[in-house]
């Protein structure tokens, strides 16, 4: 018996990411949709550093999550899709440990290759 | 007599850009919405090079337009807005001089400061 798995399109990857982000499953996004050699690019003023490789990118996500004391709310837009790339707008209203309450707003760009996310980049 | 002009929000800049792009007024977008010190970042495989400064960016736009023999169609998505940034998906179905017909699909990210676009970046 053989099993075949259809490669997801950019739109399918985008829809699954949005679905998971809206229920707060950030780690599941990375486990399920990220390629092993993914790169994650943060702006120089980000509280977390850019990372390369799925394990390092997941550690970065965990590091950021660990900075949050209380999550008050947030939102994740539908994706706009263009070829191998898609982007979303994200907001996060949270109290950060030792830093108080902040409302983050950003644009995220994702690159898809062979049905997996091979890069993400954040703009804020 | 004094006149005051309200600084446009990111959403207002995004809406105006989308409105102009949908009627093909790329040059008007740059003239009206771009800051004098805007930077425009293209991927390394782009047929046109990244540019810095409104005049150079407009020249880049004209250079790209000059490569098109016939424009068959295209689309420009609504913008998703996150803080000072917004992004759109764009398609262009065109015949390029000496290269034949191609369907370009890309994501564009724009950064707004004081009501003007201070950077754009293209992903394809």
Explain this structure.
2 copies of one chain form a homodimer. Chain A is of the alpha+beta class. Chain A has one domain (10-123): Roll (Nuclear Transport Factor 2, Chain: A), CATH 3.10.450.50. Helix content of chain A is 28%, strand content 45%. The first copy, chain A, is built from 3 helices and 7 strands; from the N terminus they run H-H-E-E-H-E-E-E-E-E. Chain A has helices spanning 10-22, 26-33, 54-67, and strands at 34-41, 51-52, 68-76, 80-82, 85-96, 100-113, 116-123. In chain A, strands 1, 2, 3, 4, 5, 6 and 7 form a 7-stranded mixed beta sheet that branches. In chain A, helix 1 (10-22) packs antiparallel against helix 2 and helix 2 (26-33) packs antiparallel against helix 3 (54-67). The interface between A and B is medium-sized, with 24 and 24 residues.
């Amino acid at each position: 018996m053989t099993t075949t798995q259809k490669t997801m399109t950019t739109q399918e990857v985008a829809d699954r990411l949005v679905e998971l982000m809206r229920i707060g499953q950030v780690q599941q996004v990375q486990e399920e949709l990220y390629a092993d050699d993914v790169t994650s690019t943060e702006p120089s003023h980000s509280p977390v550093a850019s990372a390369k490789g799925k394990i390092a990118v997941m550690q970065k996500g965990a590091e950021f999550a660990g900075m949050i004391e209380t999550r008050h709310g947030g939102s994740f837009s539908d994706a706009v899709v263009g070829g191998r790339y898609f982007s979303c707008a994200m907001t996060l209203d949270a109290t950060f440990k030792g830093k108080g309450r902040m409302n983050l707003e950003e644009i995220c760009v994702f690159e898809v290759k062979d049905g997996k996310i091979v890069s993400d980049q954040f703009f804020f």
